[in-house]
Amino acid sequence: MEQLLNHLRHLGFTELEAKVMVSLTQQGTQSGYEVAKRLGVSRSNVYATLQRLVSRGVIQLTPGEPARYTMMPIKEFTQMISGQMGESLTYLEQHMPSETHEQPSFFIVEGERKVIETLNRELDKASEEIVAGIWREEAKWSRQGLERAEQRGVRVLWSFEGDEDGKFSGMLPLTASQQGGRKFWLVVDRRWCIVGMRGDELPAQAIVTEHPLMVELLLQHFAQEIILFELENDLGAELIQRYGEGYEHILNKYMPSFVHKDID
C-alpha cells in the first residue's frame, strides 16, 4: 500500500488525495461520509479533497442525498495522467528559457565515501577514454569502475604505482612524490576531471571540475609521463649520466629548492 501511495504522490497528488483514490478503487462508489469514516479523517478535509479530485476529472460525482463518488477506471486514469505529463514535457521543451553557458565551476569533495561515489559515478558514464594517475592504496576505489569501462570498450590509460598483476592495459609508472599524501587524478572523456590527495592520516579531499584548462593540464602532465617513460626505457643509463638521478642537474638549474625537498 505504501509503495502505491508513494507513486501517486510522485504523480503530484497529496497524501490524502492518494488515500481517497485508493479507497474509492478498493471499495467502489462511496459517500464522502463513508470515505472519511474508513480513512479516519475529518469530513471537512475529505469533502475538500473530493472536490479537488472531481475538478481534476479523477473521480466522478453522482448528485444525490448523499452525493456519491466513484474513482475513474484505472486504465483511463493512467492514460489521462500520461497524456497530461506528455503535454507538460513538450511545453517545457518548447518554452523553457535557453540555458545560460556559465564558466565551469570547481567543486570540493571531502571524505572518502563522497570521493568514491563521485569518482565511480563518472567512470560509469565514460564512453570514450579515461586517463588517470592513482597510487595502489587508492586504486581499489576505481578498480571495478575501470574494469567495467574497459569491458565497454572505453580506452583506459593510467599511471599506477605498485601494480602486481599487470591486469590492465596502458599502465605507466607513477613518478609523483608521496610527500604530504598520495595524489590521485582522473580525466573522463577529456571533459571531466578530479584531482585530490589522501594519506594514512589525511582525509580524502578532491577538486572536481569540467574546466577545460584543468583537463588540459592533467592531460599534458600525463603526456610528459609517457615521454619520460619511453625515454628512460630506451636511454636510461645515458640520461642519468648526462642529467643526474631524477634529472637533478636540470632541476637544480631552475628549481633547486624542489630538488632538495622532493628528490634528495
Structure in words:
It comes from Paenibacillus nuruki. This is Transcription regulator TrmB N-terminal domain-containing protein. It holds the Pfam family TrmB. Residues 8-74 form the Transcription regulator TrmB N-terminal domain. The chain has 264 residues and is α+β, with helices and mostly antiparallel strands. It folds into two domains: 2-74, Winged helix-like DNA-binding domain superfamily/Winged helix DNA-binding domain (Arc Repressor Mutant, subunit A, Orthogonal Bundle); 106-229, Endonuclease Chain A (Endonuclease, Chain A, 2-Layer Sandwich). Helix content is 53%, strand content 20%. The chain is built from ten helices and ten strands. It has helices spanning 2-10, 15-27, 32-39, 43-55, 74-95, 112-123, 136-151, 212-243, 248-254, 256-262, and strands at 30-31, 59-62, 68-71, 106-110, 129-135, 155-161, 171-172, 182-188, 192-199, 202-209. It has a seven-stranded mixed sheet, sandwiched between helices. Strands 1-3-2 form a three-stranded antiparallel sheet. A hairpin with a 5-residue loop joins strand 2 and strand 3. Helix 1 (2-10) packs across helix 2, helix 3 crosses helix 4 (43-55) and helix 9 crosses helix 10 (256-262). The longest helix has 32 residues, at 212-243. The termini are far apart. Residues 162-178 have low confidence and may be disordered.
